[in-house]
Amino acid sequence: QVQLQESGPGLVKPSETLSLTCTVSGASIRSYYWSWIRQPPGKGLEWIGYIYYSGSTTYNPSLKSRVTISVDTSKNQFSLKLNSVTAADTAVYYCAASFGSGNWIDPWGQGTLVTVSS
Amino acid sequence: QSVLTQPPSVSGAPGQRVTISCTGSSSNIGAGYDVHWYQQLPGTAPKLLIYGNNNRPSGVPDRFSGSKSGTSASLAITGLQAADEADYYCHSYDSSLSAPVVFGGGTKLTVL
Question: Are B101 and A47 within 8 A, CB to CB?
Answer without folding.
Answer: yes
